[in-house]
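Final report, results section. Input specification for complex C-07:
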Amino acid sequence: MSQLLLMFFEFFKVGLFAVGGGLATIPFLTELAERYHWFTIEMLSSMIAVSESTPGPIGVNMATYVGFHIGGIIGGITTTIGLVAPSVIVICIVAKILKKFKESEVIQSLFYGLRPAVAALIVTAASGIFISSLLHMDADSQNPFAYINYIAVALFVLCYLINRKYKPHPIFIICLMAVVGIVLQL
Amino acid sequence: MSEYLTLFTTFFKLGGFTFGGGYAMLPLIQKEIVEKHKWASEEEIMDYYAVAQCTPGVIAVNVATFVGFYRKGILGAIIATFGVIFPSLIIIMLIASLLQNFAQYPIVQHALAGIQIAVCVLVFQAIIKLAKNGIRDQFGWCVFGAVLLLSYFTSVSTVMIVVLAGISGIVMVKLRKGASA
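Structure output:
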């Protein structure tokens, strides 16, 4: 029982202090590995690999994996709830305040500056996946064209055109491309 | 009751098909939350992302909590959050107990390579949509450009960038008012 409480408390702290998304939790998890010996650093890297290759927010996947490893199903639920509890508390408070002052000029002009910034931050966050999936970063050549993953770029264009013309549900595109990836051995 | 159930199932879907960080959830949010259920406008989603960037926690979870709270208060927030984390709980526990080297299977890697291209396309379109709605004038493009430069080439933290952008919005509106008065 005290172990579960400790796990909840530790992941509550991670959720509270890891600002900026799932990958921000990794340094905290490294520290947990060193302090409690719940898991090793080597295991952490395989947990990251699984978390990145399964659906769901990466931070949540990591918390579930670590918790499950330490304490089975109950452990996984405990750490995951611990991780998201601070978010729920903080966001509910912020949402309530925002609702109250939504019409105020200061809040309006605040978001007038924030919206373009958010668009830019999403571009930055997404650029990693664009580079890793559309380019061959490991190509070792003087020729800049050697770095382009032509098959991936062709599929990107094709997928874009299908998406524009038929406007399918994003889930359809994701499933379709998973099958394409397996068939073409991407 | 049914509204709570819809909140849960909608966010369950989002959690189950988000590959990557919070940004990867954006296309699904636009489709399900903005277009289908009309629970929030495109601008409101941007506002939630802005707050989610500089509050603690996983961004996708923060956005879910936001939408849930505005639909159905605190219970709505909890249910939406639970919906978004539920697929992770099931999938990760299954993999951790059955297929520890899941990420190394060739079939998984091929599927993921395909999925990543899909995510690129979806996020690309989501960003265009976002830019159309959120960047309305020259000031907006200046902020957009400045934030891109800051986040790529400096180590200024995201929280700092968000704070600066917010202040610049307030200052800009004040300046305009001063000029027109």
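Chain A touches chain B through 93 residues (CB under 8 Å). The radius of gyration of chain A is 21 Å. This concludes the modelling results for the funded period.
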